[in-house]
Amino acid sequence: MSELNRIRQQAAEWVVALQTAGADERPHLQAECDTWQAKDPRRRQVLEQIRRMWQATEPTVKRRRQRRRQLTGLGAVLLLVLAGAQLPWIYWTADYRTTAGEIRTLTLPDGSQVVLNSGSAIDLDYSNTTRTVELVRGELLATVAKAPDRPFQVVTRDLTATALGTRYSVRLEHGFTRVAVQESKVAVTPRDGGDGLALTAGQQADLNRDGVLARDATPRQRPDWADGRLAFSNTPLTEVVERLARHRPGLLTLDDALANSPRRFTGVLPADNSDAALALLADTLNLEVRYLTPWYVTVRPR
User: Three-state secondary structure along 147-179?
Assistant: First the structure.
């Protein structure tokens, strides 16, 4: 299990313990939790996200009291789902969003089409002069309807990507945004200044708020996930599992015994059915898929 997954699990257990504790034991538990948080800044951030989502699932005092009488283990299962998803509040309030494993195609008011990848969210800002899609989480593929007097833009925390043609994808990663162009051209501008760039079909670039981090070639064809499939060619097992994890709720982890495994996978897996994808992967590479709960799954050697 990765260090971040350990933090998620521990944070979930802390929230359950604090929410279900009696008045006498809560101060002691809170002090221990504060000590745990102080050792790593990521712990405080993850704990707060889980705490907010716990509160969002309990709209009434009566329901909250009922939850406190439930078994702690049941609460931990729920929180592991929330912790694994790591969904910020901005995701829940977005205009459009997809759940884990869901691929959704939207037709926008101007006739443009946006495909949302698993666990993605967007806000729309359309006016008589502009067409703006804000990607707040995940990944999208935009196929843009022509309207020369109304620029089409995808905005993220890092950049603005303005369509000069028809089709491109934008993906939010930790610390940067990736823009890949499948057709025509896209003008990309960092949010905090710096030099912009123009990408043509078959090019991609990674940018943060200050500027360009990397630039590379990319396939011109429509991304595989947009058609509900995940294609791999001699891909390391670690990368396959990491990608599958984006398409299921909760936690999908690779056993430590496989962390440096030389196993590689070539094939196509369904993007919208992670259980079937895991079964196919296990059969091909002689692996075991262990379901600790439906939301906490480990891939192990057989």
Answer: CCCCCEEEECCCEEEEECCCEEEEEEECCEEEE
Q: Are residues 206 and 282 in the same domain?
A: no
Last residue of a domain, one of 190, 217, 244: 217
Residue 70: pLDDT band with limits 50, 70, 90:
very low
**Per residue in 81-102, pLDDT tens?**
444 445 566 787 889 999 999 9
Domain count, the chain: 3
How many CA atoms lie within 13 Å of 205's alpha carbon, on the beta-carbon side? 22
Interior angle at CA 296, CA 291 and CA 297, nearest 5:
45
Q: Token pair of 88, please?
A: 């910020």
Cα separation, 299 vs 302, whole angstroms: 9
Q: Is there a single domain that holds both residue 135 and residue 115?
A: yes
Same domain, yes or no, for 169 and 272? no
* Assigned token pair, 105: 């195609």
For residue 292, the SS3 value is: strand
Tens digit of each residue's pLDDT (9 = 90 or more) over 1-34 = 457 667 877 777 787 778 767 778 888 889 999 9
The CATH number of the domain holding residue 169 is 2.60.120.1440
172-181 burial code (b ≥16 CB/10 A, e <16): beeebbbbbb
**Do 72 and 115 have their domain in common?**
no
66 contact partners, CB below 8 Å, separation of at least 6: none
> Domain range holding 159?
92-217
Joined tokens for residue 163: 């369509």
**Cα–Cα distance, 57 to 202 (Å, whole number):** 44
Residue 200, amino acid: T
